[in-house]
Amino acid sequence: MTDSEIFEKLQGLLQSVLGVKADQIKPESVLVKDLGAESIDLLDLSFLIEDTFGITIEPNEFEKEVKARLPGGVFEKEGFLTDEALAELRQALPEVDQSRLVPGFRKAEIPSLLTVSVFVRLIRRKLDAKANQP
């Protein structure tokens, strides 16, 4: 499945969950800010992605990925991401607005960064991993 095909399927799921029109959904669209998603919508979207693509999305998927890259490192302090965590998050999510990943960024704000292209890449990575399993 190509990224374009993933995007088209994801676009349909986003229309269903968020009630937005297809032309509003672009790869760079931020789900929360641009498309009006709330946390319950992101949960619904995750379930639909799992059903549609046959993959599993973990709660706090991106946080877990960054923590795995920080062996022995500290991810957050008093709810704020550490400098090391911010650096890893920039690498893990190159599609997001990097200017937001600065000291003072809260762990709770991670969902506000997520774009459509972040999900396309996540789905692609999960599909590739599934295809490469013995």
TrEMBL record:
UniProt feature coiled coil, ranges: none
Protein name listed in UniProt: Acyl carrier protein
Domain of life: Bacteria
The entry's keywords: Phosphopantetheine, Phosphoprotein
Every Carrier domain range: 4-82
Pfam families named in the record: PP-binding (PF00550)
InterPro entries: ACP-like_sf (IPR036736), PP-bd_ACP (IPR009081), Ppantetheine_attach_site (IPR006162)
Species: Candidatus Ozemobacter sibiricus
Gene3D superfamilies: ACP-like
